[in-house]
Amino acid sequence: MHPLPSHESLVAELRDLRPRGLPGLRHCTRDALREAAVAAGLCSGPEDEQTGIEKLLGAAVRRLAGGHPVRDDDSCDPLARAAAHSFGIFAARRGVPGTDRRKAAAGVYGVTTERFRKSQEREVIDELAAAVLAVAREAGGGRAEVVPEPPAAPPSAPPAHAAPAAAGLPPRRPPRPGVRPSGVAPAGRITVRVGLIEEVRDVDVLVSSENTYLEMSKTFRPTVSGALRRAAAVRDAAGETVDDVLARELGVWQRTHGRTGMPVRPGTVVATSSGALAAQGVRRIHHAAIATPVGDGDRYHVSPAVLGEAVRRSFELARHESEFLSLPMSSICFPLLGSGRGGLPVETVARRLLDAVREELRRDPSWAVLLVTPEESHARLLLDAS
Q1: What domains, with CATH codes, occur in the chain?
Q2: Per-residue pLDDT reduced to its tens digit, 139-159
């Protein structure tokens, strides 16, 4: 049984390797990559170390592509394509200079190299590190132990931007070694919190409500979609948006799936990265298409039945991402879907959401769920309904 390196150590080494590419492995610090390659059974000593690490990275990129060969076209997951370009894993790109590889990776997302460097490249490296750990862990039959990071010293006082206190929130358990602490209750529990969803911290998945065209709300609108879009955007030193992350990634999904300008089925859930919200401990944003435009598009229709479908699909997607992206996810946050411009009564939404969430927790009690609303009266309705 070989120990696995931490995700953070792999990210640091991959950042160092990125400009050098695979031929530069011998000139990089590679202790964590070597540990992962040994755990995966791809190398045994210094003589085959570099070959083993290259095989490991190739396997990790294929994992990002869902286990399929990585192709440089729209049939392949953009994250896998960008990773293959970034590190020279495509056979014909192995010796290409780092600047050209970054340019090719940026082209996958249709952004400039500078924007890619500041935004998408971080996600690519983070996800590749997670995939490396998954490949090593699976090769060891799931028995390899994770070496935990040294615990951080507790803060002397809660941060000024901490989320508002939860209603009826039980005491938080100390995190298990190697597991990130969660901002919600223990697994299998539902917590109700009064506050803004964009201020939620240390919850793996935040769910946003969208229309069936997956067009996010304008950032100035007082909606969950607009608030998350605004909070996730990457900004420069002057506060100007340089990457509208969530809207951009939804656009990539639509182009990849041939749905640009076309509606999806109500209840469809699409995942994106969390953009700048990653700094708050959020890993993914799930976009639940629940609102169907009516007439000239100034009104929306939301069927109460679609709420349960959106909850089910979001859990299903979260489990898939946790397994295939090897993201250690265990918590998910829902707003009162459909109670805003969707026009559904809050009592109806509370009952439908709670029924659907309870059903999912009966099926898989390893998840912790946070229900968040900015209105105290709505939080009381959720507590009464539960």
Answers
A1: 7-139 (no CATH), 166-385 (3.40.220.10)
A2: 754 333 333 333 333 333 333
Which of 115, 127, 123, 66 is CA-nearest to residue 274? 123
Contacts of 350 (CB under 8 A, 6+ apart): 336, 378, 381, 382, 385
pLDDT in tens, 106-117: 998 888 999 889
DSSP 55: H
119: which residues sit within 8 A by CB, 6+ positions away? 111, 234, 242, 243, 245, 275
Amino acid letter, residue 364? D
> What local confidence, expressed as pLDDT, does residue 193 receive?
93
Does pTM top 0.85 for this prediction?
A: no
Give the contacts of 141 (CB within 8 A, at least 6 positions apart): none
Q: Where are the beta strands (DSSP E) in 16-150?
A: none
Tokens of 179: 């597991």
Report the percent of the chain where pLDDT is more than 70. 85
